[in-house]
Specification:
The protein is an alpha+beta fold and 516 residues long. It has 19 helices and twelve strands. The radius of gyration is 23 Å and the shape is globular. The structure holds protoporphyrin IX containing FE. This is Cytochrome P450 302a1.
Length: 516
């Protein structure tokens, strides 16, 4: 990403003015007095700077190939361009009213006034698909449902994902799967892996299989290398579900007929629901015939809950398969990329892990992860530079005022955390990978704004599996760095923004055993 910050066609004075306008957000109904005081200064939504907006198409033309200069698979670059052209609040209208928010104070203000049931406008075609299948689903699932129905689902399943006790209970199983993976790499005797992401996908399917369903997909077994195997098709269906979501959210043709992208989504969903249903039936039989105590998977805990609806469970299982594999594989890829290119950091992680695990084969416990402070700071730093999404989306459920502009209910807000996290006004030497900036007590510690980097979102709608995902990444990286010296063999790694940020090239790594 470009290091030189230019102000595009706007003068520095414009940005200064922009910064002086109150950054507070007032909800119109709750702060009537303040709003009245400022009434004459409140500006109309249409006056928020942004690309030219035409009747009917809004700013959609910007995304049309050969006509517009926006590439939907480079949203990070567009966000950067918009910030340079228009400043820290940018209006767009690709079908709906949309405002990009860059300043962490403003991001905080947006989240602080969020509704009791925070809403997102995403996964609309998936919601449509699921609602047309009442024999399988009750709802659109956690990712796509809003309002009271979302909260009903979230409160049903949340405890199983978030309670520290249940999360820690998965350390042993997860570590066992990762140890097998390390052994598989060693048995393969290949030091240069052309695209390590393929293996990380398989590994993360195995991990989520065990943690969520107590099910092995055996992704690394010879018989699973066939294109038609269950593990390969599940990984493809998870990707097939995720990759078209944003284009379908922006488009509308699928509402009239089933476009190829809609069909891809529908086929992928259907595959994931078949896999989930078969696993569920197997577990139900097991639960009837055997003692249920030994199954501490998420599914096991869902089934132990009284009055839980099986259709809600199927929806949750499909959401887990969709949300777990790509996210953890991409974020681990970026973390390995940064660690591989920053030799000193890699050696610090190694010495920390070698102290905690004097023997390669020692078990990793929840305590090991707590004590791996430098490793956890490295993951945090990688997520600052390469979060899984460019920012967090919210659908406004009431009018608000932001930076002096009236923003109406129904507007989509996108907090631009990825770009903001790379700006020098918020982080020192922002493009440098420096885990120490997160470590209190380090001379390089920085007091970073708590709303600058939000890789798992914020508030009651944040990632339901945050603790699990962080735990998995920690164990994967701890095991790999403990065992291998890792070198990056590719060019500078960028992102392809497909709802979640995928590495834009092969994850080319050399892993050389430290024991040789
Ligand atoms: C490093 C890995 C991951 C990252 C960075 C990540 C990030 C996110 C983000 C940014 C959101 C949106 C939060 C918001 O709107 O405030 C989210 C939501 C969600 N994530 Fe994750 N996630 C990861 C892994 C996982 C895993 C492993 C699972 C499942 C086991 C999962 C399940 C979900 C679900 C179901 C939601 C929707 C929650 C809701 O709307 O209530 N995620 N995640």
């Amino acid at each position: 990403m470009n290091k030189i910050i230019s102000f595009g066609k706007y003068s520095p004075l414009f940005f200064l003015k922009c910064a002086r306008i109150s950054s507070a957000v007032y909800t119109v109904e709750n702060n009537q007095e303040k709003v009245n005081m400022k009434k004459e200064t409140i500006m109309h939504f249409d006056h928020i700077p942004g690309p030219k907006c035409y009747p009917v198409v809004g700013t959609l033309h910007k995304y049309v190939p050969f006509i517009g200069d926006y590439d939907a698979e480079a949203l990070d670059q567009i966000a950067w361009l918009n910030w340079r052209r228009y400043g820290c609040l940018v209006r767009e209208k690709p079908g709906v009213n949309l405002v990009h928010v860059y300043d962490p104070d403003d991001i905080e203000a947006v989240f602080r006034q969020d509704d009791r049931y925070p809403a997102r406008r995403s996964h609309i075609a998936m919601f449509d698909y699921r609602m047309k299948k009442p024999q399988v689903y009750n709802t659109g699932g956690l990712l796509s449902t809003n309002g009271a129905e979302w909260w009903r689902l979230r409160s049903t399943f949340q405890k199983n994902f978030t309670s520290p006790h249940s999360v820690k209970a998965h350390v042993g199983n997860t570590d066992a799967v990762i140890k097998e993976f390390v052994q598989w790499i060693k048995n393969n005797k290949t030091s240069h892996h052309e695209d390590f992401l393929l293996y990380l996908n398989k590994l993360n399917l195995e991990i989520i299989g065990v943690v969520a369903f107590n099910e092995r997909f055996n992704s690394f077994a010879p018989e699973e290398q066939e294109r038609q195997s269950r593990s390969i098709k599940t990984i493809e269906a998870a990707f097939g579900s995720n990759c078209g979501i944003m284009k379908l959210d922006k488009g509308f043709l699928w509402k009239f007929f089933h476009t190829p992208l809609y069909r891809k989504l529908a086929n992928s969903q259907e595959y994931l629901e078949n896999v989930s249903t078969k696993i569920l039936i197997k577990k139900l039989n097991f639960f009837e015939s055997d003692d249920k105590i030994s199954d501490n998977s998420l599914l096991g805990s869902f089934l132990k809950q009284p009055n839980v609806d099986l259709k809600d469970i199927v929806g949750m299982m499909v959401d887990i398969l969709m949300a777990a594999v790509d996210t953890t594989s991409y974020t681990t890829s970026f973390a390995l990329y940064h660690i591989a290119r920053n030799w000193e950091c890699q050696e610090k992680i190694f010495s920390e892990i070698a102290t905690l695990l004097p023997d390669n084969n020692s078990e990793i416990s929840a305590d090991t992860i707590t004590k791996a402070v430098y490793l956890r700071a490295s993951i945090k730093e990688s997520l600052r530079l390469n979060p899984v999404s460019v920012g967090i989306g919210r659908l406004l459920q009431k009018d608000i005022i932001l930076r002096g502009y009236q923003i109406p209910k129904g507007t989509v807000i996108v907090t631009q955390n990825m770009v903001a996290s790379r700006l020098p006004q918020y982080v020192q030497d922002p493009l440098q990978f420096r885990p120490e900036r997160w470590l209190r007590g380090s001379s390089q510690y920085e007091n970073i704004h708590p709303f600058l980097s939000l890789p798992f979102g914020f508030g009651p709608r944040s990632c339901i599996a945050r603790r699990l995902a962080e735990q998995n990444m920690c164990i994967i990286i701890a095991r790999l760095v403990r065992e291998f010296q890792i070198k990056w063999m590719g060019k500078e790694l960028g992102v392809k923004t497909l709802l979640i940020n995928k590495p834009d090239q092969a994850v080319s790594l050399s892993l050389v055993s430290r024991n040789i």
